[in-house]
UniProtKB/TrEMBL annotation:
It comes from the Bacteria. SUPFAM superfamilies: DNA ligase/mRNA capping enzyme, catalytic domain (SSF56091), Nucleic acid-binding proteins (SSF50249). GO terms for molecular function: ATP binding; DNA ligase (ATP) activity. This is DNA ligase. InterPro entries: DNA_ligase_ATP-dep_cent, DNA_ligase_OB, NA-bd_OB-fold, NAD_dep_DNA_ligaseB. It catalyses: ATP + (deoxyribonucleotide)n-3'-hydroxyl + 5'-phospho-(deoxyribonucleotide)m = (deoxyribonucleotide)n+m + AMP + diphosphate. Coiled coil: none annotated. Residues 109-258 form the ATP-dependent DNA ligase family profile domain.
Amino acid sequence: MRYCYYLLCYFIAITTVMAKDTMMLLQEYRDQDVAGWVMSEKLDGVRGYWTGKQLLTRQDNPLHPPAYFIEQFPPFAIDGELFSERGKFEEISSITRSSGDKGWHKLKLYVFDVPQAEGNLFQRLQVLQDYLTTHPSPYIEIITQLPIKHKQDIEQFLDQVDKLGGEGIVVRNPNARYVVGRSSQILKLKRYQDEECTVIAHHKGKGQFHNVMGSLTCENHRGTFKIGSGFLLADRANPPAIGSVITYKYRGETAKGKPKFATYWRQRSVSSAVTN
């Protein structure tokens, strides 16, 4: 009996370790030489990993799309982002948390890799393209990868995405294999940085905001700091609860390590608890 108990504990421990990272994750772009790589827009949606039988989140939690959504999905794994359009993250997140048909028709799985296929990125994506030729699905789209010849290409594309209200861009080595966990061969680049913090206090507003929240105090690894901008009037009237986790944008940090120009972005949802 004791042997069985230890065996069970070992199995649980191994399973837990394996579950930590089962998908490819991005590192930050820090002015590396990426000539010869490719780039695409970083879609602000919910990670969707199709195993060949089931659709999972970044945290390996099962999603519950209606049958029509996955009817023509392939019998092999594809990795992508569940997305509709820019600026709709909260709606996308709400749809993916629902069961049954509650807006799934608005979404597509925008695919950026075929994890178990052989070859370089384009060869892997071609496996999916060949499948879709005979099994077309309105809910799968392969993300276009643009070539990078010079650093200026990155800056110009990032400017274009930024003007359209996009989150940022992804640059990657097309000759690299699909790697589970953080990879130096796939990088993200944004005009701003973002982090999460826990709300620990609300502060009443002044002037036009005298009847609603003016700012809130947050806490994370940087310590405590206030955030007073970025809120809609509805957010101020019904602010994120104390103890809730929010995401804020910022541009650099002070000499004391505090975020510069911290601006409220959104409240974290269950399905977006861990991002790329």
